[in-house]
Amino acid sequence: MFIDEAKICVRGGDGGAGCVAFHHEKFRPKGGPDGGDGGDGGDVLLRAVGSVATLSKFKKQIHWKAKSGAHGSGDCRHGRKGRDVVIEVPLGTSVRGADHELIADLVNEGDEAVVASGGRGGRGNAAFATPANRTPRFAEQGEFGNEKWILLELKLLADAALVGMPNAGKSTLISRVSRAKPKIADYPFTTLEPHLGVVGIDGNEFVLADIPGLIEGAADGKGLGDRFLRHVERCRALLVVLDLFNAEGVEPLEQERILLDDLARHGGDLIDKPRITVANKIDAGPELYEDLKSERPDIDGISAATGAGIEHTMRRLFDLVSVAREAEPEREGFVLHRPEARGFTISREGATWVVRGRQVERVLAMADLTDADTLAHVRRRMRSLGVDDALMRQGIKAGDEVLVGDISLEWEDDDDERK
């Protein structure tokens, strides 16, 4: 089954914990701290590869998690970094966050995007040794890996696309000009998924996509074609196929109006793409085509069943594709790189003071708050970041609740300690 949309949960590996250890060696009873750092957690990456055609694997597996980093140990031995998880996706996969913001667009072989970063490994006590504190008895815990839901959308990478109403003969056409083998039958919506075929013209090739039939209002969600319009977005040219014997009795020019209106309302530049319009099934009604031709001389006639007129149409379509290729020789991928925000913000939610900021939240998230030495280090670190002064300027009082990330604290005045 062709799957072109999937929602998955990705989580980076947790960082390993730092180690509290002291060097012990004969004749050196006070060798000093030598606890090593924990390893960073692994990342979750998406990689575009040509050997994957759909997003079907995500129907069976929704949750993807990278490996956690190993803990540090004595003798300053650092933990091993967690192994990354690389998820292979088809060329043309777009990645969006929970707010539908575009995170990445992977269109070329080997394009990669980190969608969930691993947590940082905690530092061992050797990293906290200073002239004032030569024997620190605390270390950092590993940071949790980043976790999020992301939406994957596949947009086929084709040079040209067949656009038409149901039973216009698009599947028969692509099966004649390529080795694609779509399902063909005499009832509406035979094509339930896009198909790709490679068309050869005088030693040259281009990729042609057969898009499921569109009906009026497809851009608004009617019929089956609305969810497949995204596959037309990446095509360089369009072949609009009109049905001379439409089952619903819709005239060819009215079919063209409906199709172009849906393309325009879908958005993007679909309506501005170079296109050719042809009338199919001329073998069954040559007189109908002659009437259409007298009104619209620019519309060529073809017969997907007999092959009449197809070679000429494919040559015209290849010419459009060639011009578009020269104007856009290489499709470029896109990966959003958002730098980590610096500083912090303070807000009030009822009686609670809320402190937000990655650096401040990380200090508490990686601390063992049950240990007295660690708590003292956290207080010093928060003061050095300016959190204490900022809260006092805003009027915090002893006993007030302070929320940092998911951790709730009670504010205590320690004027003597600050002096």
Give an overview in words.
The protein has 419 residues and is an alpha/beta fold. Helices cover 21% and strands 23% of the residues. It has helices at 57-60, 170-177, 252-266, 286-295, 310-327, 358-365, 372-384, 387-393, 415-418; strands spanning 5-11, 44-49, 63-65, 85-90, 93-96, 102-106, 112-116, 147-154, 160-164, 195-201, 204-210, 237-243, 275-280, 300-301, 334-335, 345-349, 352-356, 401-404, 407-410. The strands form four sheets. The protein has a six-stranded mixed β-sheet with strand order 3-1-8-5-6-15, with no helix packed on it. Strands 10-11-9-12-13-14 form a six-stranded mixed β-sheet, with helices on both faces. A four-stranded mixed β-sheet has the order 16-17-18-19. It starts with a strand and ends with a helix.
Summarize the structure.
By secondary structure, the protein is an alpha/beta fold. 21% of the residues lie in helices and 23% in strands.
List keywords for this structure.
single chain; 419 residues; alpha/beta; Spo0b-associated Gtp-binding Protein, Chain: A; Rossmann fold; GMP Synthetase, Chain A, domain 3; 3 domains; six-stranded mixed β-sheet; 9 helices; 19 strands; 21% helix; elongated
The profile of the biggest β sheet is: 6 strands, mixed
Assign the structural class, choosing from mainly alpha, mainly beta, alpha/beta, alpha+beta, or little secondary structure.
alpha/beta
- How is the quaternary structure best described? single chain
Please write the CATH class name of the largest domain.
Alpha Beta
Poorly predicted runs: 183-191, 217-225
Strand order of the largest sheet: 3-1-8-5-6-15
Report the order of strands and helices.
EEHEEEEEEEHEEEHEHEHEEEHHHEEH
